[in-house]
Design goal:
4 strands, 49% helix, 2-enoyl-CoA Hydratase, Chain A, domain 1, single chain
């Protein structure tokens, strides 16, 4: 996606950075409309440097609560982002072989730095449609059973497992409980 088309979400403590980056965007828009003047280009470069330094300074002295906010940032990468960036030849595997597929748990085979691996992770989704499809990362019993199936596969073929955990917790629905949510969680942590 075009970086200029991306709308970034700023946390409260990042507002000074947001203001600087907004000014940079405004100057770039002016600069693209007119003939590029050297002074305007210099001003954009200075503001970019100032914004970068503000970002470095801000993140160097975060409070514990601000660190928590960053960890929960709505724009943070999710499981599929890491898989796309780090795992070659990824082949997703689906289903728990008992009830159905749970898209909140992503898993499959791939290569990390040339070595075969099994990848298992929570996927929350990045927009409304994908969040609904992935149930906001809240696994049902099928997801936990899929994770166990993938761990057993890794054990059988002596493959390392890369886990990417980012979950709000198990799905608390009645249907999930009826299908053995507690047992599925217990079995998945017994590995």
């Amino acid at each position: 996606m075009d970086q200029s088309a991306t709308v970034r979400t700023y946390l409260d403590f990042e507002k000074p950075i947001a203001e600087l980056e907004s000014k940079v965007a405004e100057l770039r828009a002016i600069n693209s409309d007119d003939d590029a003047s050297a002074s305007l280009t210099d001003e954009v470069a200075k503001l970019q440097q100032k914004a970068h330094q503000a970002l470095v300074d801000t993140y160097a002295k975060l409070t514990p609560w601000q660190k928590t906010q960053v960890a929960r940032h709505p724009d943070r990468p999710h499981c599929l982002d890491y898989v796309k960036a780090l795992i070659e030849d990824f082949t997703p595997l689906a289903g728990d072989r008992y009830f159905s597929e749970d898209a909140a748990i992503m898993g499959g085979l791939g290569r990390f730095r040339g070595r075969p691996v099994v990848v298992i992770g929570n996927e929350k989704g990045s927009d409304t449609e994908s969040r609904i499809r992935h149930n906001c990362g809240m696994a049902r019993p099928e997801g936990y059973r899929k994770a166990v199936r993938l761990m057993d596969l890794a054990d059988k073929f002596a493959l390392p497992v890369i886990t990417l955990v980012d979950t709000a917790g198990a799905y608390p629905g009645i249907g999930a409980e009826e299908r053995g949510q507690a047992e599925a969680i217990a079995r998945s942590t017994d590995r």
